[in-house]
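Hi everyone, sorry if this is the wrong subforum. Our group has a chain we'd like a structural model of before ordering constructs, and none of us has done structure prediction before. Sequence below.
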Amino acid sequence: MGLFGSKKDKQMDSIISQIRVDLSNNYKDSAKENVALLEQILEMKKTEGKMKNLDSYYRQLEELKEDIANFKRTY
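Answer:
Right subforum, don't worry. Here is the predicted structure as tokens:
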């Protein structure tokens, strides 16, 4: 973390990237698992009060959940 703290969380960013890759590769089950993991981490960070900018991550989580709900296989 930098002098003033990090506005981004590398772990959550990595999970979000993996979810997008999973969806682009038609791996819906893996995407669902990673969404659940992301949600769990967000709740933990919210409870701990370690990050102040969680709203953007919650928005991304909701968008990803919507993407999964609208997911259609491409093969």
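For your construct planning: The chain has three helices and no strands. The two ends are 43 Å apart (CA to CA).
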